[in-house]
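Q: Is it fine to ask for two folds in a single conversation?
A: Yes, each is treated on its own. Send the first.
Q: Here.
A: Result:
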Amino acid sequence: MYKGKKVVAVLPAYNAAKTLEKTYKEIPFDLVDEVILCDDASKDETVKTAKRLGIQHVIEHQQNKGYGGNQKSLYNKALEIGGDIVIMLHPDYQYTPKLIPSMVNIIGEELYPVVLGSRILGKGALKGGMPLYKYIANRFLTLTQNLLISYKLSEYHTGYRAFSREVLESINFNENSDDFVFDNEMLSQIIYADFHIAEVTCPTKYFEEASSINFRRSAKYGLGVLRVSIMHFLQRIGIGRFNLYRVNK
């Protein structure tokens, strides 16, 4: 708990058996009350490892629903069990759980309702192993998004995120894609709903066991990001009317 607020960590898992234990053991359980893992039909022993570790809530998708579909299950469950501060942590150990206290503090003190762990703040992205083409694409897409969305973030593509309950209850995330562009749609919704976003510097770690999408999937994601940015722009100037941006009351 943090000042009476229930803290929940959610782990979107796919073939994470080799890195799950290392990630889980670094979670600060003096702050985190419950952990939810959603396994998206892994082909390894992710579920078995999760249960051995004693993770309180293990959701098993019998068919692969995609990265976005995985997150939908996680956020809906986090709200169901009363989470007030919800941190998405990838179980592939690409993002360090040691940043959780900082992210929880920012939301718990009501400074910002959303916190992103940015790999771009500072100069560590390439040194941490981010492929050059991904770095260039990240910079190009982020610049384009900042212009179209009329916001300013160092990057929109990090998978390390924390949200207040109010944010998750307000945005229409269940309308989003089940694919990787879900992350981008979610940020677009948050900005459109006028929630402010904080960023903290996050070390970049690329290694063999860390999950990463290939060039083809990256290109598809990039096109999806541009689509979302244009939709946001049209919605913002009053031309578009997209259900994605319906704010729940």
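Q: Second one now.
A: Result:
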Amino acid sequence: MNVSFFGELLTAISDRGRQLLDLSGIVSSHGETIESLSSALLSGRGEASGVALARQILARYEALDDDGRRQYFRFLAESFTPDAERVASAARAYVQSPGPDALRRLTQVVEPPRLEFLRRLNLAPGATSSIVNMRTDLLRFIKGDDALAAVDRDFVHLLVSWFNRGFLVLQRIDWSTPANILEKIIRYEAVHEIKGWDDLRRRLDPADRRCFAFFHPSLVDEPLIFVQVALTRDVPGSIQQVLEEEKHDAAQIREPNTAVFYSISNCQDGLRGISFGNFLIKQVVEDLTRAIPSLKTFVTLSPVPGFSDWLERAKASQILTYLDATELAILDNLGDPAWTEDEELVAAMEPVLMASAAHYFLAAKNIHGRPVDPVARFHLGNGARLERINWLGNISPKGMREAHGLMVNYRYDLRDIERNHEMYAHAGTVAASKPVRSYLRLPEKSQALVPVGE
């Protein structure tokens, strides 16, 4: 793979550099703490010594336990912050005499020293991967700690730059991809569990299946995000239809007209909140369109991960006013995992859950005035349209637990993507098809809120 070649080239260069320059004698760190080494790195002792310091800091960090790592992040929060007096002085100078020089000085003193520290830390070979792993730890410690939240913002600020689209490499994953990467695809799959190598082959090997992943040169052979695609002649309404097909229709393979994105998995916890999915979908659509001209429709088959929890809270809050007493009583049966085995109960449950789902997508909002469903926010924000709500689209234990079996299709119509995106971004408007809106029993202006803690 190209990304592996590039990574191997960088490794060879760094190995050669270490042979030519013995850094061990440049910095004496015997008895020094990770905090003192970090302060020394920020103070600046030259580029060569900076590389040596950065390597030692990362090695010391790896040796820390959770308490030590938490304390280290506290050190970064408390010690590497802007100097309040210098900020105030530069701000007064800018107000009194606005101009490029005053603005430059103000910008310099406002920037947290943590940013420069992280830039210098990234000098060490393989440091980008280590910094991503550091953020994985930071996210575990951050809850309810405003100081660590500020540290996280600095990590994100740099990671967004380091992992921008210009550095990402799109690769197709197939059965000939190196085994170490295929093993990671199995491990990182977050939507529909891959049950071993045979299951993976069923998703990669047939002519009507595709898988694509983004890689970054600094994370060699580590996918950042990947998407699985089924090429079909219609829009599937269930994941069972996609995953459990043993026979593949010959006509479908020859001239598919629909590309179904049925699983998108982020792989690196340390890059949480740094969006790659919108770039991935757009790039894959472009590549598939060029390779397979018969493709005209691009849809997802998406989970609804927050629906069950939302419905339970909404019922407890007595805001399901669009349901009558009989329908509310029907919802009580959701506590029995075997309810799908009773045909009469399934028939009675369908209109109740579909009406609730329509309310969930079209009327219920989070505290920011956006749909409560995170998957919906992602696809709607990228310009997709909510095309269809699928009854019992995922009857796996996870699908029943998270969404009472519901799945949805989001449609990416190239003619409407920009318009849908603008309407969503500026007014929070949910682009939805007429069939989806037909399930809604309340006026679409209804804004009954069930906050989800965002």
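Q: Anything structural to flag on that second result?
A: Two points. The first helix runs from residue 2 to 20. Strands lie at 169-172, 209-215, 225-232, 258-266, 297-300, 385-390, 407-411.
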